[in-house]
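User: Please fill in residues for this 181-position structure.
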């Protein structure tokens, strides 16, 4: 009888331990889902901000025939100050200008980036980077310029992408990125 009780007790102990591991696995799935949703939200926000920056460059260029370089916007625990997009958490934004309008071989362009930056001390995940560009290109047979733009998202996390290119009238994303705008 004592052996039966020991066997049944051991069986229930194994069952309880197995259930606890199963339930702990479910909690991890919920935590992973929450983290995936947070990453997705942060990436969509960065994409939205970068598209906005590109649109603003196009608008500015149409009025002033030049691009402008806004201040870099590093992410901090309380956001960039002054906050251009509100609180920047997890992404920093910066812009580079290639202004060589007088050259016959170089296209006037502005490049904006959104890259993972200070994330309130949380570095347990990696975010995709973004690069956008506006190119001022001549209209065929005219002295006027038009703008062409693009925003690309990196395929690999935490890798700042190369610049988009304008080649033979076509704007394209660099390798290891996909076009999002």
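Assistant: Residues filled in for all 181 positions:
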């Amino acid at each position: 009888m004592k052996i039966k009780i020991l066997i049944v007790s051991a069986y229930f102990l194994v069952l309880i331990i197995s259930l606890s591991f199963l339930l702990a696995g479910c909690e991890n799935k919920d935590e992973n889902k929450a983290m995936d949703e947070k990453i997705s939200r942060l990436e969509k926000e960065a994409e939205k901000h970068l598209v906005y920056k590109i649109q603003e460059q196009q608008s500015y260029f149409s009025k002033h025939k030049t691009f402008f370089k806004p201040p870099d916007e590093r992410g901090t625990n309380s956001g960039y100050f002054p906050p251009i997009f509100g609180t920047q958490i997890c992404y920093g934004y910066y812009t580079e200008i290639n202004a060589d309008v007088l050259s016959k071989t170089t296209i006037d362009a502005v490049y904006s980036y959104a890259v993972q930056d200070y994330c309130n001390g949380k570095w347990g995940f990696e975010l995709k980077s973004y690069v956008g560009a506006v190119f001022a290109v001549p209209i065929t047979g005219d002295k006027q310029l038009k703008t062409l733009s693009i925003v690309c998202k990196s395929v690999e996390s935490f890798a700042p992408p190369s610049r988009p290119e304008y080649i033979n009238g076509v704007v394209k994303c660099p390798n290891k990125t996909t076009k999002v705008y």
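For context: Residues 57 and 63 are 10 Å apart (CA to CA).
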